[in-house]
Amino acid sequence: MSEKLTSSLEDYLEAICVFIKKNSTVRAIDIARILNVSRASTTEALKKLSEKGLINYGRYDAISLTKNGEELAELIIEKHNSLYEFFAKVLGSSHDEAQENACKIEHIISPDAMRRIVAFTNYYSKKYGDEFVKKIDL
Amino acid sequence: MSEKLTSSLEDYLEAICVFIKKNSTVRAIDIARILNVSRASTTEALKKLSEKGLINYGRYDAISLTKNGEELAELIIEKHNSLYEFFAKVLGSSHDEAQENACKIEHIISPDAMRRIVAFTNYYSKKYGDEFVKKIDL
DNA sequence: ACATATTGTTAGGATAGACTAACATTACTA
DNA sequence: TAGTAATGTTAGTCTATCCTAACAATATGT
Question: What's the pTM?
């Protein structure tokens, strides 16, 4: 049931979840635009996510997340956000830079390293707040 | 001339460089073992690296790096080592964990984020040395 | 409700990466 | 040096991802 997703499918799932939270619905074309892929590629990805039981979806049908899909999406988003915080707050990357790196790394970092980054970020933002980065001259 | 390599080809190139530094020569099978791929896959990768002018290589021939190949390999290895340091020293990951994460992230992290990680690691290892990790209870 | 625009799907093709199995070459060793 | 083992190559296949172009369904505006 819960075989690991590819990076690509994780991106689709994540995009679906984020979009639904903001707009309550998603269409294939919304996802296509967000991920900068064709509508055809999106259809294909939706089929796969559906087969894996992560979204409810049928031909010309509305898209929604299943329980499993939502749980998994939340995990991915959580990783994304933690990485974003780390890059933005701790390393002082720009918004876009932090987003880009978080987007890529969220799919490949190990759970242990992720935990360490979260702990690290928490420790430092508590201790130094936003001023931290300025201390080390990047 | 210098189109960007895929993550996979970067891995091959890196492995070749590291192996040559230790043993002065490499064979396809050495690479295959290091990267855990078949000899056939290695042959294919060698052809591509050769086409891109990064290695000297012909059928049943010895493998060596070109000037360009060596330069590029060094850059990748440098990124790898810096990421390893960050995970091992700053976050306190185990050797294997640090290696694994460095291996994956080296191919996708942005140059800017890489610079920040290097600066960060230097700052902290100077300031706290190996004792740093213990302070934040990971 | 009908024409048009938008969105979704399918078919077909490309690229990258990996694999196995069969075969070619090279290296070792008795 | 002959035979075997090790290594390298090729051919053919697979999966994942993306694309375009053509077509199907739905939504919209008058």
Answer: 0.93
In this chain, the answer to whether the domains covering B7-71 and B77-128 adopt an identical fold is: no
B4 burial level (CB within 10 Å; 0-12, 13-18, 19+): exposed
Match domain B77-128 to its CATH number in 1.10.260, 1.10.357, 1.10.60, 1.20.58: 1.10.60
Question: Which pLDDT score, from 0 to 100, does residue B132 have?
Answer: 67
**Which residues of chain A, if any, have pLDDT below 50?**
1
Tokens, residue B88: 């091992």
CA of A13, C1' of C3: distance in angstroms: 36
> Which residues of B have a CB under 8 Å from any CB of A?
87, 90-93, 97, 100-101, 104-105, 108-110, 112-113, 115-117, 119-120, 123, 136-138
| Residue scoring higher pLDDT (B7 or A137) | B7
- The band of B124, judged by pLDDT with boundaries at 50, 70 and 90, is confident
Alpha helices in chain A (DSSP H): 7-23, 28-35, 39-51, 67-85, 95-105, 111-128, 132-135
Would you kindly state where each structural domain of chain A is located, as residue ranges?
7-71, 77-128
* Domain over A7-71 is classified CATH 1.10.10.10: yes
